[in-house]
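subagent[fold] <- orchestrator: predict structure for attached chain, return tokens only, no commentary.
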Amino acid sequence: MDRELNQINVIPLVDVMLVLLVIVLTTATFITSGQIPVNLAKAAVANDRPDTPLIITVTAEGELFVNDRAVPDEQLDAALSAHPLQSLVLVRADKVTQLERFVTLVDRVRGLGFRQVSLEVIRT
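subagent[fold] -> orchestrator:
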């Protein structure tokens, strides 16, 4: 048992690093999946706005969310009336959403008096 330690045992170091990697990857997926999952359409030019907009999300199933809160279709007007009309409204629609559904939604929002209505896309 009187042998010399000429080398560093890296197996415990690798084990610790793998555990840390798993922790980081797990927490990163929880952080990014906090939003409602929507496959956004892609565009060559996308705007980056510094202010916080009012976000309306339309999922592939047609469900509506206002600022990540589920809102029935018939209560959308009441949910939006609580916000000032100068607010920027950002519509996040799943790419499989029917165009008619999107146009009807934007028309309703503009009919309430909101003039700054944008569509969120992914820059390609």
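orchestrator: received. Logging for downstream: The longest strand covers residues 54-58. The two ends are 63 Å apart (CA to CA).
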